[in-house]
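User
Take a look at the entry that follows and flag anything odd:
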Amino acid sequence: MKIKVICLVSLFLLCASSAAFAVTFPIPSLQLNVETAKTPEEVAVVLEIIALLTVLALAPAILILMTPFTRLIVVFHFLRQAMGTQSSPPNQVIVGLALFMTFFIIKPVGQEIYQQSLNPYLERQISFDDAFEQAQVPIRKFLLHNTRENDLALFVKGADIKKPETRNDVSLLVLIPAYVISELKTAFIIGFVLYIPFLVIDMVVASVLLAMGMMMLPPIMISLPFKLMLFVLVDGWHLISGSLLKSFGV
């Protein structure tokens, strides 16, 4: 089946005084051919293209769920809620910071994948299957290092598969969801710890206002400057970023 799409582009220009001016543009033509494969090699190429498009479609999910991005973005969200600054820093800033910190943390894993898998495959030293197997090694190591054993056991039992003899025998389909819930648990623990000092400030301010009889004044209006001052004095962004970087094992 052959589909032919013809795009017509025309442009009319108004000239000054009495002259008429015309410009001729080439008409582009786009052809998409869908034909029956005649050899197994053609079928393999088509399957590789489909697999590549599938990976590209899942790229956002891979970035979110198989990297430190989940823990970072959740912790930053809890921090903003604990401080009570509503939409400051904006979502774009928080997402951007979490994204670049993710690249910084995952850089050793990416370099190992490039050296052991991608570069040999591009130089035609190994096959695609071997490159895929080699790429799983550093990814699996990173995920296993940051996944709790009880979360891993949960999905191993839920998958109704034979118990892996070693941690390296765990399938990625089992390892990825276990890693995600481990990251969420860790992020919620960090968020709880972040809430405590700001909660103490809110309780102290609320008690003082109640004792002074100023019950109509919202405590958040008084406590917010104190929370911002405390966060700046202790260099909060430096402490939180450094603690998050150290919390990951690569």
